Amino acid sequence: MEELIKETQVSTENKELQEDIQKEEQLKQKEEEIKYWKELALRYAAELENFKKAFKREKEEYYKFALETVFKELLPSIDNLERALKAFEQSENKEALKEGVELTLRFIIQTLEKFGLKQFIPSIGEPFEPYLHEALSTEEHPEIPDGGITKVYQKGYKLHDRIIRPALVCVCASKKEIKEETPQEEEENIIENE
Predict the structure, then answer these.
(1) Is the residue at 129 inside a domain?
(2) C-alpha–C-alpha distance, residues 23 and 2, integer Å
């Protein structure tokens, strides 16, 4: 019986020892897994940081050179203006200078239109719209209803569908709506509508 008890004790001790060994192996295995996942997480964190830096660099480069194409397209206009000035110095032909400047202006406008810039000139009598127009002054006008445009001082510009500069206008208002203001009617600044 004592032998049976001793065998049972030895068997129990062996089982406990085996269980301890198994637990230690499982613990080592779990520690290895944890180490693996930590290293993987650190690698991915480093990759993410490198990606962020590269993206930031590319974004800065993009903004730095985004207008390069536009500027390259406008350089011939600068050259044409310089040639026109040189030609004017040599011949003092005002008509030739005027033609050269007009051609250059048309070329600049066409170039900017390639990139989505469009100019707009409000029509006389057109209703004032704060999104498209900026009122510089008001005046009475017998033929234009209140809130209608009476003069255009400066063209407006859109870049695709966004207004980047509203047209500067004078708006018709009845006598009682007109506030005291200084007349800003400089005839050379008023755009003639065709």
Answers:
(1) yes
(2) 31
> Whole-structure pTM over 0.70, yes or no?
no
Q: How far is it, in rounded angstroms, from Cα 29 to Cα 24?
A: 8
Number of domains the chain contains: 1
**Domain limits at 165?**
117-194
Q: Give the separation between CA 103 and CA 80, rounded to whole angstroms.
A: 9
Amino acid 148 reads G
On whether residue 19 sits in a domain, the answer given is no
* 34 within some domain: no
| 138 within some domain | yes
pLDDT 10s digits, 134-177: 999 999 999 999 999 999 999 999 999 899 999 999 999 976 65
End-to-end CA distance of the chain: 124
The closest of 143, 148, 154 to 193, measured between CA atoms, is 154
CATH of the domain at 171: 2.30.22.10
> In the beta sheet, which residues pair with residue 152?
169
């011939």: which residue's tokens? Answer: 76
The 3-class SS string of 84-138 reads: HHHHHHHHCCHHHHHHHHHHHHHHHHHHHHHCCEEEECCCCCCECCCCCEEEEEE
